[in-house]
Amino acid sequence: MKYMAIALVMSLSACTTVPVVAEFPVAPVVLMERCADLKTISEEKVSIVDFVKTVTDNYTTYHKCSATNSAWQEWYVKQKKIWETVK
Questions:
Q1: What is Dmax (Cα atoms) for the chain?
Q2: Which one in 20, 37, 46, 56 has a CA-CA gap of 20 to 30 Å to 7?
Q3: Which domain holds residue 74?
């Protein structure tokens, strides 16, 4: 019994810890995509209906993308820089 206790103490004292290197999580590709290009009107004569529709679509596209991606991407880049400086 005495030898088992000594063997147990010896085996526990021989353990070493392995350093764990945590990496900053990679952002999903969907969230890092740039916003879509806005629509343009290439015709010489444009009706007011087509003009207003294009402007409305562009405003909608821009504001959706801006709200979804820009702030998140900025936050992610800043957090990654902080993470790398702390390491």
A1: 99
A2: 20
A3: 24-86
